Amino acid sequence: MITVVGLGPGDPGLINRRTWELLTNPNVTVVLRTSQHGAVAALREAGVNFSTCDHLYASESEFAHVYQRIADTVLASPREVVYAVPGSPFVAEATVPLIRRGAETCGRAIRVFPAVSSLEAVCGELELDPTRGLVTLDALQDSLAFNPQWGTLITQVFDRFTAGELKLKLLDVYPPEHNVSVVRAAGQGCTARVDIALAELDHREFTHEDIVYIPPCKEAHHLGSAMEAFARLIDRLQGDCGCPWDREQTHLSLRPYLIEEAYEVLEAIENGDSEALAEELGDLLLQVVFHAQIASREHRFDLVDCIESISKKLIRRHPHVFNGLQVSGTDEVLTNWQRIKQGEREARAQEGLLDGIPKGLPALTQALKLQHKAKQVGFDWPDIDGAWNKLSEELLELHAAIAQQDQAFVVGELGDVLFSVVNVSRFLRVEPETALREAMLRFKQRFAIVESLARERGYALGACGLEELDRLWDEAKQRA
Questions:
Q1: 3-class secondary structure, 2
Q2: CATH superfamily entry for domain 223-317
């Protein structure tokens, strides 16, 4: 039988009666994870014969290896063993799960008894009520997720290096002046508490007896808190005591604003204006949350459903990231992406390959997507020569339509020319909508220079002949 008990936070008086009886039983082997604990002196005084695993900490470079060796030591004990850990076996104790799994594998019986942990002692020292929102984290975890709406206790901050690493992670969320507490030797009768600014967290020495407390913070820079607060803000605007205009909006009435905000995001990107991009992305996010809140009020779906839907889709369409699929490069990634999308389409029982492309997309983007879809079933030129020849053919047909002075014929043939241009752009790996927008931007910039040159030279722009305008345009091209 393997029995796992906790020694409490350090004060021998906090060891419960059952644990004390087990530790003082002369017929069992007692193994302590460490002798660095306030109750160890009381065990010696009571005549308890025990061994410790302290020597294993010096023999391994990584804690994971130390914990495994400790578990192996306990599991190798030939008789009934009582394994005692600081605090509680159920709180921040990495060796206990290893011993549980090992005991199950080798068929040994195991029982684990709870105890008072240092967390309860810290809560008493800081007068914290865990039911009001309290998170406990291990500083040695690979990734730490902070929620600044709640208080956070962080264990395993045992030296200045660990404190420094922790501080850097915390500063991504909390302001440097945010006040934090360091509690040492909680529950040992000699408890000490220091309150300092977060920026100074690693300016002091730490020991294995220290626990860091981060109070809630309204000024934190945190995605989850910000998103939740933003959703509440939109909900209030749409509420009975909110804004009359907001309450009247529907999915259909908001359509123009969604399109407008998307194009303003594009403009900020093209202008290379980071400040404007942040603002415009916020405006676009407003549209997303607004639509989700409208649906939520109608009990159809909510913002969480939107986030979960796109998260599942991204995981499903990236098996090379989440499921271990090996890919050779971007081309294979895109091939897999289209194959997975096709499977999704078939699961939804869509009628045609070209269904599902939004009709509200800009025409050039829609044309590009149509051609990509057709390519999936081999309906495509083998190389760019076919696309060039088709463009030349469509230009000749456009000339013929113009010669016949048939406007409907001209419109059709001009559309075919534009569609063929998109085909060429696809072979050149150029996104046609982006290329056209860049061309329009260059035109605006150069035309502004033409206007400026005309003013400098006293020309009335409208009175200039085409020859003079061409000269001004050539000069503008040299400048931009």
A1: strand
A2: MazG-like (1.10.287.1080)
Paired with 180 in beta bridges are 196
DSSP state of 118: H
What Å distances lie between residue 200 and 163, 167, 168, 222, 383, CA to CA?
10, 9, 11, 21, 63
Cβ partners under 8 Å of residue 255, min gap 6: none
Show the tokens assigned to 68: 């495994």
Rounded Cα gap, residues 352 and 346, in angstroms: 9
Q: Are 384 and 424 in contact (CB under 8 A)?
A: yes
Q: How far apart are CA 44 and CA 38, in angstroms?
A: 11
Phi then psi for 197, rounded to 5 degrees?
-75, 145
Domain locations in the chain as residue ranges: 2-116, 119-214, 223-317, 351-430, 434-479
Instruction: Answer for the pair 368, 418: CB distance below 8 angstroms, yes or no.
Output: no
- Note whether 223-317 and 351-430 share their fold: yes
Backbone angles phi, psi at 17, to 5 degrees: -60, -45
Half-sphere exposure of 385 (CA within 13 A, CB side): 1
| Separation of alpha carbons 282 and 306, rounded Å | 17
CB 245 within 8 A of CB 271: no
**What average pLDDT does this structure show over 418-436?**
92
Q: Which tens digit of pLDDT belongs to each residue from 17-33?
A: 999 999 999 999 999 99
Q: Which fold has domain 2-116?
A: Cobalt-precorrin-4 Transmethylase; domain 1 (3.40.1010)
Q: What is the rounded CA–CA span in Å between residue 47 and residue 326?
A: 60
Per the CATH hierarchy, to which homologous superfamily does domain 351-430 belong?
A: MazG-like (1.10.287.1080)
DSSP 110: E
Question: Which residues touch 221 (CB under 8 Å, ≥6 apart)?
Answer: 172, 173, 174, 175
Percentages of the chain per state (helix, strand, coil), in multiples of 5: 55, 10, 35
Per-chain mean pLDDT for the chain: 90
User: pLDDT-based confidence at 376, cuts 50/70/90?
Assistant: confident
- Answer yes or no: are the C-beta atoms of 210 and 184 closer than 8 Å: yes
Correct CATH for 119-214 of 3.10.25.10, 2.40.30.10, 3.30.230.10, 3.30.950.10? 3.30.950.10
Strand (E) or helix (H) holding 473: helix 466-479
Q: CA 136 to CA 154: how far, in whole Å? A: 6
Partnered with residue 4 across adjacent β-strands are 83, 112
114: its two tokens? 């709870």
